[in-house]
Design a protein that fits this description.
With 132 residues, this protein is of the alpha+beta class. The chain has helices at 3-12, 85-95, 101-131, and strands at residues 18-21, 24-27, 49-55, 58-64, 76-80. It has 2 domains: 1-46, Enolase-like, domain 1 (2-Layer Sandwich), CATH 3.30.390; 48-131, no CATH class. The strands form 2 sheets. The protein has a 3-stranded antiparallel β-sheet, covered by helices on one side. It has a two-stranded antiparallel ribbon with strand order 1-2. A hairpin with a 2-residue loop joins strand 1 (18-21) and strand 2 (24-27). The termini are far apart.
Length: 132
């Protein structure tokens, strides 16, 4: 099906990941790169989508393409990102070379946010262990 048809069904009929609150519409889908429910950020309504996820302290780049849509268990291609921030940015740039610039920018922002979160968590753990 067309991405527009899928988005119309999700947006106007029912999406189990959508959370409506006073401040806006949010998405609880774990593959959503921004957390906002809109057409460009919806992993269900885009046949070509990418995001970054954290598994036990290791970041992975997940990429979804239309060619794998007929195999739901292989829908998302997973690429392990290096712990070094600059090298991880290079891997993202290499794998998403011909993708839309807006999506690549969102993914790089997500990597930056998650890297900063990882640094803050490490500092807090060191501070707590030093005070004990």
């Amino acid at each position: 099906m067309s991405d527009e048809v899928i988005w119309h069904c999700l947006r106007h009929n029912h999406c189990s990941f959508m959370a409506k609150i006073e401040t806006g519409l949010f998405c609880r889908n774990p593959y959503n790169a921004t957390g906002i429910c809109n057409r460009s950020s919806c992993p269900l309504a885009n046949s070509r989508y990418a995001t970054i996820r954290d598994h036990d302290g290791i970041f992975y780049l997940y990429m979804k393409t239309a060619e794998r849509a007929h195999l739901p268990n292989k829908l998302w291609e997973r690429v392990k990102l290096p712990r070094n921030y600059e090298k991880a940015m290079e891997v993202i740039k290499k794998h998403l070379e011909h993708w839309p610039e807006l999506l690549v920018h969102k993914i790089k922002q997500r990597l930056t946010k998650m890297t900063q979160y990882r640094i803050r968590m490490r500092r807090l753990q060191l501070k707590v262990s030093a005070s004990l």
